[in-house]
User: Fold these one by one.
Assistant:
Number 1:
Amino acid sequence: MTTGDFVYDSLRRIVGQDFVSNAPEDLYIYSHDLGAQPPRKVDYVAMPRTVEQVQEIVRLANEARVPITPMGGGLTLSALALPVKGGIILDMKRMDRIIEVNGSSKYAVVEAGVTQGALKSYLEKHHPELQHSTPESPPAATVVGNVLIHGHGHLTPAHGTNSRMINGLEVVLPTGEVCRIGSCAVSPYWFTRECLPDLVGLFVGWYGITGIITKASIQLFPKPKLRDLVLFSTDDPGLLSDVVFDLFQMEIAENFFAITQDKPAWMYGHTYITVTIAGQSRDEFECKKTQLLSMFNGRLDLIDPIPASLRERYLEVPPFAATQADFAKGGGFEYYGCIVPVEKVPEAWNRGLGIARKHDVVFSYGLQALDAGHSVMCGPVYSFNRADERDIEKVRHALEESSRLALDLGGLIWKAGLPGQALMMERMDRNTLALMRKVRKVLDPNGIMNPGNWGD
Amino acid sequence: MELKEYADVVHRCFRCGYCKFTYDFSYRGFNCPLYSTRRLESCSPGGLMWLIRASLMEREIAWSDRLTDILYSCTMCRNCVQQCRFSFNHKLVGIFEAARERVIEAGSVPPKVNHFLTAIHGYGNPYKLLRQDRGSWAEGTGIRLYREGDDFLYYVGCVGSYDSTGQRAARALGEVLLKSGLAFGILGSQETCDGNEVNTLGEKGLFEVLKQQNVQTFQNMHVAKIVTLSPHSYNALLNHYPGGFEVFHYTQLLRDLIKGGQLHPSRPFPERVTYHDPCFLARYNQEYEAPREVIRSIPGIELVEMDRNRENAFCCGGGSANFYTDVLGGGRDRPSVARVHEAYSTGATVLAVSCPICLTMLEDAVKTAGLEGQLRVKDVSEIVRESL
């Protein structure tokens, strides 16, 4: 590691020699995303342990005019934790304390580096009656990173996106001050974001350009004693909008997915629909199941018994979704989860499959209902061979076309990387775009925070 | 296997990070000693896979001292093999070993690793101590040299033979075996390093030499059964030596002797004890129960488990020669210190081990952690001896 470099030497002083690097070998890993996006230049990686260290690094970055990109698990697949203009990656994973779990008001306050796995494990041991909405990403993903990108979890269909479960935040602003957002700004309790101007939105979906989140309070939910899967199939994806609508007319589903694949051959042309049912008692559970079966009797084909692999895939929390990285025996996959209006699902489904097939890449296609059926995330998961640049390029083209389709249908691109951001900004209301720029300029006068995202 | 034989696998690592955790999907903390110490993404099994591909296979980046440092900081504990959920998981440690082999061929190993290998090549042990002193630890114990026709050869290994803490365990086991009435002996100066660490460091040539020396000795003495003090020796002899003899880890033998009535642990050992699974006995060879059965057979003991146990046990950080080279480092954040804190949190007063390397690592860690007088580290053989 090179010394004699002002920024490096300063970072070393702030976080300690073991937790900063400008070595090409370490930077190689931090400059490569797990998805299909090309690598980008990184100059330093630093791992702060305290809020004060984050503040010092922010002040350093302002002084040296060097960009900062905060990073959680680095598992977005759309390269959101890769700097656009070089500089420092702030790997937050040493800030890994679970500060508090309030079992009565059902929330957890965690530092920015706490992983999904760590929180799940902690709750199972100390609060087995509670759970948090766990995303499909691997357990190494961070809780804070997930909520800041409008993340989804296994409770999202029933309770809303994980970002809506934020009660409060602690943030180091781009100018170095520490702010608290939500009830924790006026109270020792991090239990709500109601009753005050809702400043949480200043930091969710901005990809770190408005500040560095160091703590978050997230809502917890009752953990059911019983969970099981009901599996249906249909050959008519035109039914999907109605299925989503009808299902969420009653509070039956904990989770809801639909999926199709061209391979293996037995899946071709069939849409599989999984509904997770949960209950605190056998009566509650059976009642929901009876209602569900009655609701779709004659419209969907019930598959019973459910293949063990499917049951495990959709009941495990988190599921092993990363298995798709090996579908092309190549260690890579990427998807753009496009959020579309419920009524557009059949068209998105059929045209999306057409795009996937046209580009001749290994794919699966799925949807998850969001926010009690108020919208749907649907889109392709493209697997690729990391050792084959042509394969990766095909996936990039397929992703771009899939993203354009989502926008054409009136949808949005979830956790959009640079290509997706550009597509959405092309169509964005000009005054909205100007407002975003004003907000950014006010908060970050020197433009050090992850510049290049959402324009400059 | 050579690295090129893994060419169809290395790029398949997605870096999802399951390899950092525990096996049972409970995610009880980071269980990779390298990642839990260093915390940079480059210092994780997935990071290593990507770096090996980028440097040794695709030549995107030049091999460097930094890469060597990361590669040799891995303790080869097999947690990643246990936890990785892809079908190629069983190849992970083999890939790291093959990469090390390439580094050895290029003469680029870290100086501390070089010292370790040079010492073993010259002296048959990493400490550069005299071969003729290898059996000195047994003086005054009544433990004699192996004679043809004995029931067992007691293979002690380098740490039990030369390290003062390791010798404590070696003597304890020897004295327990004496009380069992078994006919056994040691090789003394004729024993040489088993080569387990040499093999994991990628020095295949030296490993072959050590293996041949030991096998020749075993054959010359018509050895039929071997009991090892160290799980590292057990792994080498069981899985990498050509065979022709039966190999037991000593906890397996003690279990059988206790069950067979040849040993009678009867003096109470009234302590709360927690047991640390050594990687080369547990994850490498799936022996989780023999040590626990031995411990449970001792009156007065309350055996409690740490959160991370059996296939989820957290490595002490000493594997793949790190007990000697300490390439991993970590100061107060080192795995052994975390492990003694975990043991202490169970309320245990004794941390039992069945490996002389774990014994030395964890005993040092108790001092670093300031737990002296509150948590004692004892080899299972020492506990059995006290109970006889």
Number 2:
Amino acid sequence: MLSNYFPILIFGAMVLLMGTFLVAIGLILGKIMGHARPDKAKQSPYECGFEAFEDARIKFDVRYYLVAILFIIFDLEIAFLFPWAVALKEIGMAGFWAMMIFLGVLVIGFIYEWKKGALDWE
Amino acid sequence: MIETIYNIISQYILLPLTIAVFPVDYQTEAMLFFQTTIKILAIVVPVMIAVAYFTYAERKVIGFIQGRIGPNRVGLFGFRLWGLGQPIADAVKLIAKEIIIPLNANRSLFIIAPILSLAPALAAWAVIPFDDTKVLANINAGLLYVLALTSLAVYGVIIAGWASNSKYAFLGAIRSAAQIVAYEIAMGFALVGVLIAAGSLNLGEIVNAQSGSVIHWFWLPLLPLFVIYFISGVAETNRAPFDVAEGESELVAGFHVEYSGMAFSVFFMAEYANMILIAVLSALLFFGGWLSPFQGIIFLEDIFSWVPGMFWLLAKTSIFMFLFLWFRATFPRYRYDQIMRLGWKVFIPITIVWLVVISSLVVIDLPPWFS
């Protein structure tokens, strides 16, 4: 059973190594063949030719944060749906209606968010 | 044929090597390790070649759609061959380019980000079944694994945007992260629909649940979910028309604006590997994977019975890969508020409604799909 997951472990390790190898070979060959001549303008962040004004870690819109919170809630709902979906044929009508009630509660919350304007992006 | 090559390699190269190098106690484990490595290479190498030639196909297809020819100069061995040498020339150029690391960037995060972007895009291939029997890891939580790994892609993006310490990269990264996260919910709900219909998380069993004929495939009962899944896949990979994260006309290149050379091309490979992954998953989950489209048709079924299942999977995948390119050449870019509206206010309500519909159909055992 668990031995089926063994190839995934090797696969994960191999693709991480492969990515590291690709970037490493790029760094090394790029140093040798790319004629690296660092200067201040080349190594400053790109801002369409201007000198960078200030640090780039600026304040950003709170709506991105809101999206992240809403994502956590809905992703959790999906996590609840997964086992139910697999077992639906065995648990029959009782399981079906239990999940319908759960989805109903979810939809009420969704309508509340919508009415409050949490989903708007204007 | 693939089995024969694998058996020859396993018998005549790996077995003597293992016996020669390892002590007797560890030979079984070493052999298992080597065999798994060979199988992994047999998946990863074709995927990487597909990624290289997908970029060529993209330039060629979009060229033809716009009445141009596309790349046609770089050939192989002195022949032009319609520009087939282009991806190799690009790879050589990118390897030789210098990787510039900005002075006020976080060096370690800057280098780790492309690796974290490529690894999940490739690792998800571990559970993809190419045939009835050809699957590397036949695990019973396959779909969950795929969903988890496609979610990990957002880390590469956000780390790259943060580590670059550049305003364009930062704005591109947070836009991209919010967009990926928003469409992942619609995608997750669509996958739950497939689960309800198939009753299993194992990708092979999901395909086998669709056998019968073309109308038994899940695209028919799950049509809205399929459309939403594919559009979410396009949004998730930051492809046109949802490519505001890159948005050439305003953010230059988005989260990878500071990357050059091989580091940039690793991001590029990750994006294309993700697109191929979305295409192959669409074929597996909604279009019967390796099942023949002529199944169940009296005469044609026999004529095409010699075609290997892998061919049908590749043919279906190619169609979806073509759709990605077609979308890019056809649709104008969405505005960011429109993207968020589509994800939250259109896709999520539709998927929830269709989940209720599909679970009712399963409970009442509606033929021909759920009987």
Number 3:
Amino acid sequence: MVGSLLLALLGLALFYFQNLVLYPYVHVRLLSLLVFAVGLRQPLGVAAAVAVPLGLLQDAYALTPLGLHLSGALILLATARSFQRRLLLAGPGSQTLAAAGALALEEVFLRLTLAFVGLPALPWRATGGVAILATALLAPLIFAGLKHTDLFLRRLGWRSLREQE
Amino acid sequence: MRSRSRFHKPLLLAAGVLLVFTLFSLSLKRSPVTQRLEGVIISLTAPGLQILRSGGEAVKRLWTGYFYLVGVQRENELLRRRLAEAEQMEVRYQEALKAVQRLEALLDLKRQLALPVIGARVVAYDPSLWSRAVIIDQGRTAGVEAGQAVVAPAGIVGRVAEVYPRHAKVMLIVDRLSGADAMVQRTRVRGILQGKGANRSTLEYVPKSADVQVGDVVLSSGLGGIYPAGLVFGRVSAVNRRGPGVFQEVEVTPAVDLSTLEEVLVVKTAKLALTP
């Protein structure tokens, strides 16, 4: 419970950072990356408890139908669980590649969903691809950040996020 | 215990799919439940953004006014401190001057419009690439309603899409769902200004024979009941008559820098509900 709350708060902090510092100059999908990393490293319950509020947070600030970003977050979560079983994501290279694959899958899913509900299609632009690549390059950083958060909490006497499940 | 863990994942999956489909269908029907949910999320998170934004400005002022000068030699410390104080005052003065200029421009616009307006500050942006929207710090309690036009001194910003108790969500004119009746000031040629995402918009349904040139000012025609007539949408930045079909492609660059909005006016009278 505490782990989910902490990770959701970390997501909120990343959203604030994106809104106050990065926008409109840098487009990276930090929340998507966080959801993917949490889905990969944490138990399903914890990951779902992080993905749902962060998906809803993005939905609340956008004009797209409520549930679009939420479904994107759940797709990232499902991809992370699938990768967890099949791939060994120990090195930064594999983490970057896995994140790029998951983000690309999310992008395709969101475009298909928008088309399915009859909203005007977003043109394919290089910006989207660059945003996915730039975000994927940050994957090792987020993975390391989550690992150190875990260690920090353990040092404080808390059980690790995984153990709490 | 074992059967519980066996059903744990399928149950979570089913719950997730059910949640998404329920939210989607409610949202597409524009149910008040989803609006209330969005309102709760924005009411909980937007004040944090507001505080951090003003705090960030204070830190920025401090940085430019004082810390920039760290590293001075000891004998110059006093002079440099005075200089830092003076610079800090100068930055504050410049900030205050800019704020006064912005507010004066807004006041001028208010006089020009001669319509009842509500002043508002932009507190948050939608940072995703999927839509173009901003959150303002005035909502239902201040009299803001869905469909009202939002303007800045340089021109039209967009219209109110969703209203919450103390905040409102504004659809920018470059959003893909935004469309408004517009005309070219020089030749009175009319078309529909359609948002194209990112920072782009186009004037649609303009025949190839119509006289439209790069640099022409595009105004609101007043038809459609959303934007007051005569306000500036932007300038024509590209014209292409070589494409197929009977209409030319006219690209319009918004007059307002929609990525650095601070203060805006919500026009109270001109409004058209977004839903049927």
Number 4:
Amino acid sequence: MAASSVKPRIKLDKKEAKQGDLVEVKALVSHIMETGQRKSADGKVIPRKILNKFTCTVNGKEVFSADFEPAVSANPYIQFKFKATESGPVVLTWIDDDGSKIVGEDSIKVS
Amino acid sequence: MSAFMTRRQALMAGAAAVAAATLGQSTTPALAANNIDEMTKAFTGGAKPEAGKVKLDLPEIAENGNTVPITVSVESPMTDKDYVSDVIILADGNPNAGIATFHFTPASGVAEANTRIRLANTQNVVAIAKTNAGKFYTASKEVKVTIGGCGG
């Protein structure tokens, strides 16, 4: 299964926010996060394959990002907040070691 | 006062000697066995982080080292002039010290993030925060791990 066909689960704690409110984002994505430390039954090292970068933009502006190492659990979960300033799409992007991307989108309405 | 300090210093020296002796007998290679010192230096550029401002929320005992919930938060006004830009999470007993780095912006509103991590064995987890002014703050917590999370 190509990484790009994975659909992340994204939940915002509110759909509509007042200016300056904190919006909490929770996101979960299916991924093996292979550490590169494990060995297969025949003694070969299973090559590393993780999502190494996560970015969240709101209305095109980056609000939060993270670099992941192999010590992040399989099916990585991330939770963070952002300050509501303008309405627009909330886009979450994960980048795989192989360069492919997993993208999920939600939106926020700011009044 | 000075007599009291001398007594305290003597006590501390004694405690340190005991700790050193205990460490000498211990066979666990976990302490600083990985690249945590290099990773810390690469992040801080050699500056010594101050204790405080950082809150690290981890379970005392993690039954499953494959998925240990961690929340890190840093006290900061998070304005354009004064905000926490980066927080690195390190562990001293994993094959690699690095776990994750969070990058915040004033638009984050609050310097707080939560994820789930792997811990190979009982060890210290360290968070170091960097502000836009180039100051560093740190906190650490020991997590006892029942079943390690890096084995095959």
